[in-house]
Design brief:
about 450 residues; mainly alpha; two-stranded antiparallel sheet; 14 helices; about 5% strand; disordered C terminus
């Protein structure tokens, strides 16, 4: 149905949204669960059949949670939030529990270094401001869910009931909503970066008007505000109610989730969730990816033409113009690489999300068990892509390396010549070689 939804950040959120957004025309249940339904038509998720050994206590709980071969997430005809049911643990444990902490640490270190370097006064250009904003958003995307992932998967508490109600609310905010908002800002900033570079390369006279620092700062603010407003209803569209179940022989409080009354009263679940996710699919995933691919092709074409023009200038012994064009080409190439790495991680998410919308609205064909695994893998590789930008900047930007050395090594590497500074608006004054650029 239109309201069986996938969250962008994790398979956990995907499973939660299927329960939180029930529909009058639910997806077919497996034969074993025919005739059984949760509160307000909540959906059941088919889990993998593998058994896990977490020690006696956790194994007992896991066995308690299995009804036949399906995970138990209801008590006395009331659904509750059961994290054991919400992701295939043979994927979630190694990815979220063991690999993700190291990736988070590497991302935090690398992006902190990027912010330190790009925030220097000598690096203050419109392009660098956008790159710094991207680094901050990517870092926050992994920082917000870190405590929840560590507690649930690294420390092996995923099998325990999530309680009290305030913990369920905090887990939802920091593991689902805040990462989605930060990632949305990062996507739109990447799009702004590509548009900005396209103006510099293909419409240079416009750059002095449209690509100034004040305009870029205002654009960044509007992007952050729009992403916040897009995500704001999600903070209030669910109600968390305490529910008591028997766990390990004791009465334990768990969280029962229902769609908030205002959604039913003013919009209806189908309209609300369909509008939200269609907006997200179109304006956060599909259209940005399509525009970025188009701009990358245009930039690469312009780069090839500029290289031919540079060869002509070199033959005519016009060295000064040749050096300026070489700097511009190197900067364009570096940003093409940055956008390409982003697209490699983002396009799979866009494809899976679009397939889900088609499966929900038109014809049901998607295996949601497989989709959860795909979302988990694509999100993991998205986080893998975050530290790569630091390597790109170090490998392709001479000014970035020089500023990094100045901050951490002082004057040991030699006095820096301020005449080599490069402004994306005014152009380069000098250039070193064909494989490097200054920002």
């Amino acid at each position: 149905s239109a309201t069986d939804v996938l969250y962008q950040w994790s398979a956990n959120a995907a499973a939660a949204s299927a329960r939180l957004a029930p529909s009058p025309s639910p997806s077919p249940l497996p034969p074993e669960l025919e005739g059984r339904s949760g509160v307000d038509g909540g959906q059941y998720l088919v889990q993998n059949d593998s058994q896990f050994d977490y020690g006696n206590e956790s194994l007992d709980y896991y066995q308690q949670q299995m009804v036949g071969n399906h995970c138990r997430q209801m008590e006395a005809n009331m659904t509750y939030w059961n994290l054991t049911c919400e992701s295939p643990l043979d994927y979630a444990l190694p990815l979220y529990g063991y690999c993700m902490p190291f990736l988070m640490l590497i991302t935090i270190i690398s992006n902190t270094l990027i912010v330190l370097v790009l925030s220097k006064k000598s690096m203050a250009t419109p392009t660098n401001f956008v790159l710094m904003g991207m680094a901050i958003c990517d870092m926050l995307t992994v920082i917000f869910p870190a405590p929840g992932l560590w507690y649930m998967y690294t420390f092996g508490n995923h099998y325990k009931p999530l309680h009290p109600v305030s913990m369920c609310l905090a887990y939802s905010i920091f593991n689902e909503l805040m990462p989605a908002m930060c990632h949305t800002i990062s996507v739109w900033l990447t799009l702004a970066l590509a548009v900005q570079r396209y103006i510099y390369v293909c419409h240079a006279p416009m750059a002095r008007t449209w690509c100034t620092m004040p305009r870029v700062k205002r654009c960044t603010f509007y992007i952050a505000l729009l992403a916040f407003l897009h995500q704001l209803p999600r903070f209030f569209d669910r109600t968390y109610m305490p529910l008591y179940i028997e766990w390990n022989g004791e009465e334990t409080e768990v969280c029962h989730l229902e769609t908030s009354l205002w959604v039913h009263k003013y919009l209806g679940e189908d309209l609300y969730y369909t509008s939200y996710y269609l907006f997200r699919v179109l304006f956060v995933h599909l259209l940005p990816c399509i525009i970025l691919v188009t701009l990358n092709i245009l930039l690469f074409t312009a780069l090839r033409q500029a290289q031919e023009r540079r060869k002509l200038l070199f033959r005519e012994n016009r060295k000064k113009e040749c050096k300026k064009l070489r700097e511009s080409n190197c900067t364009t190439l570096m940003l093409i690489v940055v956008v390409s790495v982003f697209l490699l991680a983002e396009i799979p998410i866009a494809v899976v999300t679009a397939m889900h919308i088609v499966s929900s609205l038109i014809i049901e064909f998607l295996d949601y068990g497989l989709a959860n695994i795909c979302i988990m893998l694509t999100n993991f590789f998205l986080v893998v892509s975050y530290p790569i930008n630091f390597g790109i900047y170090c490998g392709m930007s001479r000014q970035f390396r020089e500023t990094f050395k100045e901050i951490f090594l002082g004057r040991l590497m030699g006095k820096k010549d301020s005449s080599t500074k490069y402004s994306m608006v005014t152009g380069a004054r000098t250039c070193t070689n064909t494989n490097e650029t200054v920002l």
